[in-house]
Amino acid sequence: MKYKALLTAATLTGIIGSTSAMAQESPTIAVVAKVGGIPWFNAMEMGIEQMGEELGVEAYMVGPTSADPALQVRAIEDLISRGVDVIGVVPNDREVLEPVLERAREQGIIVLTHESPESVNIDYDFEMISAQQLGEEHAKLLAETTGCEGSYAVYVGGLSVPAHNAWADAAVNWLDENCAGLSQAAERFGVAESVDDSRNTTLDLLRAHEDLAGIMSFGSQGTCG
Questions:
Q1: Residue 16: which H helix or E strand, with range?
Q2: Residues 6+ apart with CB under 8 A from 190
Q3: How far apart are CA 99 and CA 97, in angstroms?
Q4: pLDDT tens digits, residue range 134-185?
């Protein structure tokens, strides 16, 4: 059965407790990030290690070198071979990960996702926010600051990233219904996990669209870029 919940220490303790029958030693929890080496996931890694110490378990993060779903698949395959007790992942592409997550569960590994509420082969999905509300709040702020005039662009971490695109969908839908004078300059861009890509895309947009009024960025590096 799949559960959706807010991540709390009590919830995580319950998850860890459910692994005790599988492992005589302290459970091992490995979390696969979207991409390693960026501030968002550096902070996440610190939290994982801190909570692992508090709970007395081995907990660590695996950070792929780029936001490539294939690298997440390889990382999860490696964790399966190592026999970890729990695998967590923030998917870059939900559908690409489904087969390998299914294999993990077949091996008795508990599988957790974050920012991927539609994932199927999991035990728990943790969401900190409402995707609908987050997207709409971005849209309302853009409408307020632009006066619903001109064009805008949307950045996401990748065109297959589940949560980012759900947030973007909610924002675009709200603008379509409530801000008719503001139109999309182009289809959304999957650049928001890269400072350089976001910067270069913005420069291109500024050159191509004199009426560019704003950019909504759903991704940890897009706004920096």
A1: helix 9-18
A2: 155, 156, 157, 158, 159, 160, 161
A3: 6
A4: 999 999 999 999 999 999 999 999 999 999 999 999 999 999 999 999 999 9
In this predicted model, what pLDDT tens digit does every residue of 46-58 receive, in sequence order? Answer: 999 999 999 999 9
Handedness of CA 91, 95, 192, 66 (dihedral sign): positive
What are 194-216's pLDDT values in tens digits? Answer: 999 999 999 999 999 999 999 99
| Structure tokens, 8 | 């709390």
Contact between residue 132 and residue 107 where contact means Cβ atoms under 8 Å apart = no
For the record, the structure tokens of 85 come out as 């007790």
Question: Cβ(66)–Cβ(48) under 8 Å?
Answer: no
Residue 95: name the closest of 120, 60, 59 by CA: 120
DSSP category for residue 115? S
Q: Looking at residue 10, what DSSP letter applies?
A: H
C-alpha to C-alpha distances, 34 to 80, 163, 169, 180, 182, nearest whole angstrom: 18, 12, 20, 35, 32
Tokens coding 123: 């035990």
- CA gap 20, 36 in Å, rounded: 30
At residue 178, the 3 state secondary structure works out as: helix
